[in-house]
Write a structure and sequence with these properties.
Structural class: alpha+beta
Number of helices: 4
Order of helices and strands: HEEHHH
Strand order of the largest sheet: 1-2
Strand content: 5-15%
């Protein structure tokens, strides 16, 4: 039932070009899989869940929308880094005074409480601001 609804939404979409709609339909979708990676560097050997989303029905479409949102209304990258190399380069270029203190934050349950209604409102407002048809 969900697959049929999803296909109908893609068919009716004005955002996706007609000849590309087939690219965003996963022909053999399955439930996401979860595996646990043990955090060996921490006492008590906590387990970090790693979820594989690639086989779920909406994966390809979510990648398309992520790309469209990032290309049309990019967020400032003030506090974002791509990888460890970029972090090290930024630290190398930063003047560090003796009174500075370093902190490492371990974020637990990241993104578990995203409010869907508010997120939709933010995206709608952003698209309006950049004058993009929904």
């Amino acid at each position: 039932m969900f697959q049929t609804e999803f296909r109908n939404i893609i068919k009716q979409s004005k955002t996706i070009p007609r000849d590309h709609k087939w690219k965003y339909i996963n022909l053999n979708p399955s439930a996401s899989t979860v595996k646990g990676l043990i955090k060996l560097h921490k006492l008590g050997q906590h387990i970090r869940p790693v979820v594989n989303w690639r086989n779920i029905l909406t994966y390809k479409l979510s990648k398309l929308f992520t790309h469209k949102i990032n290309s049309t209304a990019p967020l400032p990258k003030t506090f974002n880094i791509k990888n460890t190399t970029e972090l090290l380069q930024n630290l190398w270029d930063t003047l560090i005074h003796p009174h500075f203190t370093f902190a490492s934050l371990d974020i637990t349950n990241l993104y578990s409480n995203i409010l869907i209604k508010e997120t939709k409102m933010i995206l709608t407002d952003t698209l309006k601001y950049y004058q993009i048809d929904q």
